[in-house]
Amino acid sequence: MWARLLAWARRLRRDILTLWFAGRDPTTPLVAKLLALALAAYAFSPIDLIPDFIPVIGFLDEMVLLPLGIALCVQLIPAPVLAVCRERADRWLAERKSKPRSWIGAAVIVVIWLLAAWGIWRLVAD
């Protein structure tokens, strides 16, 4: 079971990197490109939308939402583009052994948290 979980995590890591490459490919359809870039930015962000220290729902995004988003996005990307991007992702992981960081994704998450805090403050203050 542990080996299957690790294999799934490696595939997830490779697929999100694949989406990062697909989002930058000019032949990827616009909807798939936007979804791929948004998923990759979120996945590579050093900050989570739902912090992991929150019991149960803290891992909801990594265990449920992100894989579902990846599955949807993979269906939207043409097979030849997906194959080329998976090959690039495999090469990247073999050479660098690390994932890229998305500071844009982190900034978006910080803005979402600030807007949520402002909204809650407005509800409480009124």
Describe the overall structure.
There is one protein chain. The chain has helices at residues 2-23, 30-44, 60-76, 79-96, 103-125. It has 126 residues and is mainly α. It starts with a helix and ends with a helix.
SSE run: HHHHH
The coarse overall form would be: globular
What is the strand tally?
A: 0
Query: Stretches where pLDDT falls below 50 for ≥5 residues?
Result: none
Instruction: Write down the overall mean pLDDT.
Output: 85
From the alpha carbons, calculate the radius of gyration and give it in angstroms.
16 Å
- From the N-terminal CA to the C-terminal CA, the straight-line distance is 52 Å
User: Describe the biggest sheet?
Assistant: none
In short:
The longest helix is centred in the C-terminal third of the chain and has 23 residues, at 103-125. By secondary structure, this protein is mainly alpha-helical. It has helices at residues 2-23, 30-44, 60-76, 79-96, 103-125.
Keywords:
126 residues, 5 helices, globular, mainly alpha
Secondary structure elements and pairings:
Elements lengths: L1 H22 L6 H15 L15 H17 L2 H18 L6 H23 L1
Helix pairs in contact: 1-2, 1-3, 1-4, 2-3, 2-5
